[in-house]
Write a structure and sequence with these properties.
The complex is a heterodimer of chains A (479) and B (488). Chain A is of the alpha/beta class and 479 residues long. Chain A is 43% helix and 17% strand. Chain A has 17 helices and 18 strands. Classes of the chains: A alpha/beta (479), B alpha/beta (488). At the A-B interface, α4, β2, α8, α9 and β16 of A face α5, β2, α9, α10 and α11 of B. β16 of chain A pairs parallel with β18 of chain B. Chain A: Belongs to the aldehyde dehydrogenase family.
């Protein structure tokens, strides 16, 4: 392991990865990797998570292809220095901010989107000119094997490496010194990563999770909007990896009077999309492994929680499948309402007045996203100003992930740092300030011995009081 | 009689916890988010600086023997500028930024909204106790946060004055100062903050970041390092020398994070450079620099001893080319230049943070990049004096540091359009100007969608046709989309 990392450091020192043509070559090779191995990737995702090709393309392959293509087209713009405006006082000078790579970076990815969460940050790290070690999650073993085998075949394997193994490998990696660590996963492990990074003052980006709520307000009154609302909620709960996604809808908040309408719409939608019962379930992922399966089953064990199930609830332990399940008002102190569900169980919490949903959301740690289905502009403004989350999406869900111009990241317990589009490039770069000065003119008052005149001069200079300066120098102003 | 000292003695974890809770309640109540509040606090800070200039200058004289001009300029005038800039620009900074949306999420609109992080902790250093406490606070206030400030106990007069002034001028329900040393800082670090902004050294920074990790608190660490100065021949030597002196001894007598730490020049040029230094130093500080009023003293006996040891090391003490005089009673060390110290000496291993300037000689100036990079840690700043454009380009491309300046030193600190921060061992994050506002904000992404344009291909049951259409949509290519829609 140490040898690989030493090689990454050597390669970075050689300067090869700084060249824009190297970066473009890697990104092009990356696109080849994805294009030529579509079937293998589909197979691996099916093996690890039971994802269907459409889901795999939409959430994984398509995303990373789009990301690499976008980076290729923007790279020249991103690496260009940014000019800064300078005041007359510093004339003649030139100021710019130049992005440079950080060095050798470590990327940890998660098991639920094993391709996207590994390769999307990788694209950012390469675009910014770093050398990279990628540690995919062992809980998605087929994808991990695929990455270990495919990446060296297409990318510069002295600059970009993949390492397999489990938590012990992760621990050993964290003891070493990196120039940046990019981590996607749970808050618990996020703490361990940051603590380890602190020993070396390594900057980190932590993409964590949380309980992402969906507020459903007045879009249910109009039948066609109601249908679309239901579709989007169902699509954003069970569509992404059967709810095992950091930005999946965790729970729904709706007014008491609209709850039954919503539930009926959701039920119909679920049946249309995924089938009427456990046996007929299709177009949906499965639970990743026995551990997660057991955890989810345990969430429903509490008798009060079990009693609140209004749809679904059946499980198939052998196939690791849990059918889409809706719960109505489970007890607020139950586990299902206090930890991130990360699975196909959807609690619906009713409130008397929709405004209460804001207090409810604020009583929990900041989530990665808040979704709100509403056409009330005042309510939208309140949500924006009175809640805090990584991001907010109105009248849809999940789709904000596709916007390359929006920063993707959390706040508070949902993480810090961000990526996607240019933000990926920035997250793996150091923005170096550069100021070019000339030898003339020289400002004598900069130098001791200090006098009152010099003090006055500098005070006026700092205030950019050019008139005052002139008066002082011409003797019309007392010092 | 008993109360004040009791208060100070009993600031423990519980007190810290209570303080954070109170501030969080103020924050949640929305006090700090209001634009009027932010403006009122910045104006109050301006008044505070204007009305207290003599006391500030006096406190800095007590703590550091800082010359009045340095105090007026670096601690007071710079801070006032910071407040004025924030007052002028805050409306622009707060305004949401429009973000482009693409065909893939059509129809939609998007924006990035700045929101305050919440309750933030600012820990400052002893060398510029007012600037490094209040400048980050300007950003935190402009961004709408509640703040606890922990000034450095190594500048006690300044710390005490800060506590008094902040209590008198700023809103005590949202901004507090905690004085003290390690126990008080530790009590603060155990709490959950929404951001910690630390200025200081790498050793304590690791402790700060590890404490922050327990709560997943993001941090800005403004540290230091050995900021090198490369000096080429064929320049205006007098101007270059004066600018190096101004950045070294003119900044708290070398006790500044961006002070030139050491110089690299060619063997041929070194003697000329030393002579130029001797000449200009005498012009600035006279024949007896220990008696000059224009030089700060060393902050305390600890640092005085540390610097003395650097000078006394074998193989280093013989390399003193100028200066070296010390006055232990008054904690003064004269501007000292050393020529050709061994690269593995202590003075070349750690950040000097004092009035000693080693000059390292190389055969060719291009070798200086290797010298800098072999120091191991990326510095906060790096400087180059040259008229050779190719050398300038190589310098900018090869040297990684927080910030670079060509043909001057330290002035980039005053330029608010440039982000000020480190990389690697010199720190993470940046501030000044809008960067301060950003450092204390969360940039929330917001996507607005309508109900039209809902296509069934997003939803199951999944078919091959949907797959093809999705592939086309994600590629953004209109031609592909049309073809997929037509079933080709």
């Amino acid at each position: 392991m140490e040898k690989s990392i030493a090689e990454l450091r050597e390669t970075f020192k050689s300067g090869r990865t700084k060249s824009v043509s190297w970066r473009k070559k890697q990104l092009k090779a990356f696109l080849d990797l994805v294009n030529e191995n579509e079937d293998s990737i589909f197979k691996a995702l099916d093996q690890d998570l039971g994802k269907s090709p459409v889901e795999s393309y939409r959430d994984e392959l398509g995303i990373v292809k789009k990301s690499a293509t976008y980076s290729l087209s923007c790279l020249d713009k991103w690496v260009a220095p940014k000019k800064g405006d300078l005041p007359l006082l510093l004339f003649p000078s030139k100021a710019e901010v130049i992005p440079e790579p950080l060095g050798v970076v470590l990327i940890f990815s998660a098991w639920n989107f094993p391709i996207t969460l590994a390769l999307d940050p990788l694209i950012g790290a390469i675009s910014a000119g770093n050398t990279v070690l990628l540690k995919p999650s062992e809980l998605a073993p087929a994808c991990m094997s695929f990455l270990i085998q495919a990446i060296p075949q297409y990318l510069d394997n002295k600059a970009i490496k993949v390492i397999g193994g489990g938590a012990d490998v992760g621990e050993r990696l964290l003891e070493l010194r990196w120039d940046k660590i990019f981590f996607t996963g749970s808050p618990r492990v996020g703490r361990l990563v940051m603590t380890a990074a602190a020993k070396h003052l390594t900057p980190v980006t932590l993409e964590l999770g949380g309980k992402c709520p969906a507020i459903v307000h007045n879009t249910l009154s109009n039948p066609s909007k109601a249908k679309v609302t239901a579709k989007r909620i169902v699509g954003a709960k069970w569509g992404p990896c059967t709810g095992q996604a950091c930005i999946a809808i965790d729970y729904v908040l709706v007014e008491e009077k609209s709850a039954s309408t919503l539930i009926e719409l959701l039920k119909k939608c679920i049946q249309r999309f995924y089938g009427g019962n456990l046996k007929e379930l299709n177009s949906i992922s499965r639970i990743v492994n026995k551990n997660q399966f057991q955890r989810l089953v345990n969430l429903m064990k509490d008798p009060h929680v079990a009693a609140s199930v209004v749809y679904g609830g059946s499980v198939d332990e052998e196939q690791l499948v849990i059918e889409p399940t809706i719960l109505l008002d489970p007890p607020l102190d139950s586990e299902i309402m206090n930890e991130e569900i990360f699975g196909p169980l959807l609690p619906i919490i009713t409130v008397k007045n929709i405004e209460e949903s804001i207090e409810f959301i604020n009583s929990k740690p900041n989530p990665l996203v808040i979704y709100a289905f509403t056409e009330d502009e005042t309510f939208k403004k309140r949500i924006l100003s009175d809640t805090s989350s990584g991001s907010v999406t109105f009248n849809d869900a999940m789709i904000q992930f596709l916007c390359d111009s929006l920063p993707f990241g959390g706040v508070g317990q949902s993480g810090f740092g961000r990526y996607h589009g240019k933000y990926s490039f920035d997250t793996f770069s150091h923005e170096k300030s550069v100021l070019h000065r000339a030898f003339y003119p020289e400002l004598e008052p900069r130098y001791p011995p200090w006098t009152n005149f010099k003090l006055m001069f500098i005070k006026l200079a700092y205030g950019f009081d050019y008139l005052g300066l002139m008066l002082l120098m011409l003797g019309f102003r007392k010092s | 009689m008993g109360n004040k000292s009791e208060d100070k003695a009993v600031f423990d974890t519980d007190s810290a916890n209570q303080m954070v809770n109170k501030l969080r309640a103020s924050f949640v109540a929305g006090k700090t988010k209001s634009y009027e509040w932010r403006v009122s606090q910045l104006i109050a800070m301006l008044n505070m600086m204007e009305e207290s200039e003599p006391q500030i200058v006096s406190a800095l004289r007590d703590d550091l023997s800082k010359p009045e001009l340095e105090s007026s300029i670096y601690e007071i005038a710079m801070l006032k500028n910071s407040c004025k800039l924030a007052l002028k620009e805050m409306k622009h900074w707060i305004k949401p930024e429009n973000a482009k949306t693409s065909l893939t999420t059509f129809p939609s609109s998007a924006e990035i909204v700045s929101e305050p992080l919440g309750v933030v902790l600012v820990i400052s250093a002893w060398n510029y106790p007012f600037l490094l406490s209040l400048d980050p606070m300007v950003g935190a206030i402009a961004a709408g946060n509640a703040i606890v400030l922990k000034p450095s106990e190594l500048a006690p007069a300044s710390s005490s004055l800060l506590a008094k002034l902040v209590a008198r001028y700023l809103d005590g329900s949202c901004i507090k100062v905690v004085e003290g040393a390690v126990p008080q800082t530790s009590a603060l670090l155990e709490q959950k903050w929404d951001k910690i902004f630390y200025t200081g050294n790498g050793r304590v920074a690791r402790i700060v970041m590890a404490a922050a990790a327990k709560h997943l608190t993001p941090v800005v660490l403004e540290l230091g390092g050995k900021s090198p100065v490369i000096v080429d021949s064929g320049i205006d030597l007098k101007v270059a020398t004066r600018r190096i002196i101004a950045g070294k001894w003119g900044c708290n007598n070398g006790q500044a994070c961006i002070s030139p730490d050491y110089v690299i020049t060619t063997k041929d040029y070194a003697v000329k450079l030393v002579d130029s230094f001797k000449c200009e130093l005498e012009q600035f500080y006279g024949k007896n620099p220990l008696e000059s009023k224009d030089l700060s003293r060393i902050v305390n006996p600890n640092h005085f001893d540390r610097l003395s040891k650097l000078l006394e090391e074998d193989k280093v003490s013989s390399k003193i080319a100028h200066g070296g005089q010390k006055d232990e009673t008054n904690l003064k060390i004269a501007p000292t230049i050393l020529l050709d110290v061994p690269i593995n000496s202590l003075i070349m291993k750690e950040e000097i943070f004092g009035p000693l300037l080693p000059i390292i000689m190389v055969d060719k100036l291009e070798e200086s990049f290797d010298v800098i990079n072999s120091c191991g840690a990326k510095p906060l700043a790096a400087y180059l004096f040259t008229n050779n454009n190719k050398l300038k380009e190589e310098f900018v491309a090869e040297v990684s540091a927080g910030g670079l300046v060509v043909n001057d030193t330290t002035v980039h600190l005053a330029e608010h359009n440039l982000p000020f921060g480190g990389v690697g061992e010199s720190g993470m994050g940046s501030y000044h100007g809008k960067f301060s506002f950003d450092a204390f904000s969360h940039k929330k992404a917001v996507l607005y969608k309508g109900f039209s344009g809902d296509s069934s291909l997003r939803y199951p049951p999944y078919t091959r046709g949907k797959l093809r259409l999705l592939q086309a949509l994600l590629s953004g290519s209109i031609l592909r989309i049309i073809r997929a829609l037509l079933g080709w």
